[in-house]
Structure formats: structure tokens, C-alpha cells
Amino acid sequence: MPKFYYIARNRAGNKETGVEEALSQEEAVSRVQAKGLIVVNVIPEGNESFGGLQNENVVKVRLKPKHGRVTREDLMLFCRQLSTLIGAGVTILMSLEIISKQVASRRLYDVCLDLKKNMEAGLSFHEALALHSRVFSDLWVNLVESGEASGNLAVVLNRLATYLEKEAEFRNKIISALIYPVILSLVGVGALLFLSLKIIPSFAEIFKSFNISLPGLTQMLVNFSDFLRRNIFMIFLSITACVLIFQNYIKTKTGRMNFEKMQMRLPVFGEFFLSLNIERFSSEMATLLESGVPILYSLEITGRSVNNLIMADIVRKIKDDVREGKPMRDSLERSGFFEPMVIQMVSIGEEIGELPQMFKRINSFYQEYCDTFLARFVAMFEPFVLVFLGGVIGIMVIGMFLPIFELAKLNG
User: Domain extents for the chain?
Assistant: First the structure.
């Protein structure tokens, strides 16, 4: 099998070289990437004397893109690779060239080339990012601007990459926690529909042939089954229509606001949704302030990024108060949205000049709270659903066998 010499950078930015056996240069790149390294160059055996391992030329082979869109994972990997390469002393232009050969997104590949082109034309990195607002949010642009102004772009990008990774990890925890309850619910609904549409009608035909009077429970189940069979498509269409109407309603500002208020007022889950919003707010504020973004800009960016109208309105009022010279503590307290612990920690952070660290501590607390809540919810949900389904299916089984017991008594 052919051998390929490679140059790569590890997550710490240190250079690594080695030999990889592969059928093609593209496969060699994939094998090196699988080790968690960022490929800088891959050279076939026998060509290393042409400046190969002495010169960090960009790898000429480009991996085939796997999809067209730009996912969160694509941006997370892009940011981490960029921070690693720049931190290792590779120029931004060279870093973009290297990363463009390895991205899995077709669109992100085009964006990398356009960023490089615009920077070669004289734009700064943050100005080039701002031209792709659909890919890079305000958070990206302002953090990069702060990094360029302070000369710590690699450090700022590393913080941004860490933020994106933690956000993705937190989101994945929520999704993983909800997968099992959703699957269990779907299986339960499927089992009930199967009994209602297939099993009960079969028993009903048998009972009809005996020409007997059915017990009340059995008759109720048969009537429900008949209704379901006759109207299943109308029921399905009605549910679909309600879902579509609801989706269109919450797309409006009034509908979205009412839906968010309803979420916050739910008996058990209201506090969870409240905590999720505070977690997102504190996470972005900590990242922005720690990277040197002024507090007014940090509040403005966070207000546009929290994806919650109630929180966005509160953040806007906090920003207005801070602009007037008022302490953030007073604004948080007036909002009625934040718990006393958050207000007190922010107040202390303002007094001692450690606001970014306080927001990091607030974020850690609420992440842990949300993780614990979801773990408890899943632990309680499983037995509840199992008992509920067991009870419903038990009633159906009893209802179907009651006429058989009656026939047995008559024959006896």
C-alpha cells in the first residue's frame, strides 16, 4: 500500500509529522484527521525531497464535501481549527486555505474562499465575516473584532470555540434526555392504535356472531373503535391543521410572546424554561465580556441572540439602564425574571470588577440545574408512562374478555 508523509497540528497547535499508509492522498488526509489532527500537508513517498516536510505548504487535495448547508458542528470545528492554526503562528490567510480543503460543508468551503479573497482585497477578518451574516452571527463578528483590536485573536477564537463546544454539549444533553420519553410515548400511542383499529374490531365480529348483549365497558370500547376507524383520516387532518395553525401563530410577535409566557407559567416546567434562558444569557455574557467586548455591545449582542422575546426585551431595558450609568443589579431586580442569587452575584461582580467570572459561575449553576432536572424528569416519566399504558391496555383486555366470561357462565 502506498505511503504518505504528513505535516499536521494537534489541538495545542504543536507540529506533528509522520507516515500514513493509504490507497490515495485523500484517504491519507482522512486517516490523519481521524487522529484529531489538523492536516497541513500530505506528500506521497518519494516526493518529500521537494520541500515537503520542510515547508508547510497547504495540502493540495480537497476532501469531498458531505453536505451543502453549514451546521453548528461545521462552525464549531471551523472555529477550533482556526484558533489552533493561528495560535501556532500560521497566518489567517494560510489557515483559511488549509481549513477550506477539509471542511465537510460545500457552502462553508465557498465561504472560506470568499473570506480569503476579501481579506486579500484589504478587509479585516471581522469585516469579511460580517459579509456572511447568515453563517456568522454578531457574536462571531464582535468577538473577532475584539481579538483583532487587542492582538489576541487566537485567544478569543479559542474562547469562542470553547463556548460553541459547551453550547453543543449542553444542547445534545437536552436532546438525548428527551429522546427516550418521545420514543416511549410514540410506542405507547402506536400500541393503543393497534389495539383499537385491529384487535377490538376482530373481537367485535366474534361477539356479533354469538348474538349476545355486550357489557357496558365492552360496548364502549367497540363504539370508540368504530368511531376511530371511520374518522381516522379526519382526526389526522385535524391534528395536522392544528399544528400548522399553532406554528404560524407563534411565528407572529404576539403569538410568540404569549407562547413564551405560557412556557414560564407551566406548573413543573416553567422554572426549567426560565433556567434555560438564564443559562443562555449568562453563557453569552461571560464569553463576550471575557473576550474584551464592552458591556453595552455585549448586552446588545446577547439580546439579539437569546431567541426569547421576553428575555430580549429585558436585556434591552438593562442595556438602556447601563447606558445611563445605573448598576445592572437594579435592572435585573426590576425585571422580576432573575432569582435573588443571580442578582446578588452580578452585584458582587460589578463591585469587585469580576463580572465575566460571575457570569461564568451563574452559567455553571444553571447548566447543572438543567442537567439534574432532565435526569429526574426522565427517571419519573418512564414509570408514569408504563403505569398509564399498562392501565389503559389492561382495561381494553378486560373489556374484550368480559363477554367471553359471560358466555362461559351461560354454558356452565
Answer: 1-61, 72-163, 180-412
Is residue 306 within 8 Å of 277, Cβ to Cβ?
Answer: yes
Q: For the whole model, what pTM was predicted?
A: 0.70
Residue 352 neighbours by CB under 8 Å, 6+ apart: none
| CATH entry 1.20.81.30 includes domain 72-163 | yes
Q: Best-predicted range by mean pLDDT among 127-131, 180-184, 212-216?
A: 127-131
Q: How far apart are CA 111 and CA 153, in angstroms?
A: 19
In the prediction, which pLDDT does 52 show?
46
Spatial contact of 275 and 369, defined as CB atoms under 8 Å apart = yes
Among residues 328, 362, 323, 357, the alpha carbon closest in space to that of 342 is found at 362
The CATH number given to 180-412 is: 1.20.81.30
Q: Is there a shared CATH topology between the 72-163 domain and the 180-412 domain?
A: yes
Overall average pLDDT of the 390-401 stretch:
85
Residue 336: φ, ψ to 5°: 70, 10
Helix axes 138-150, 295-305, angle to 10 degrees: 160
